[in-house]
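Worked example

This section walks through a single chain of length 77. The input is the sequence exactly as stored; nothing has been trimmed or padded.
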Amino acid sequence: MKTGLRCNNRTAIAAFDELQERRFIEMVDESFFCSRTESKSRTWRLTWMPFNHQFPTMEWEEYESAIKSTGVVSAPE
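Given that input, the structure is written out below as tokens.
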């Protein structure tokens, strides 16, 4: 049985880029591929959920606050 979202790669990449820019997700581990050993996909964490026995970091609120205070849509530095 095949599962997953039905969208092209560009749409999926754009969605992940936007979620990362707006700080809803953060990459935890980079992916790697090796045909002789194990390969690993990227690991993401949701910033509004607890992770590794830590409280949520809620970085997305910083992004939202920056938009409300400046009216500019860009990620905080």
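What to look for: DSSP finds two helices and two strands in the chain.
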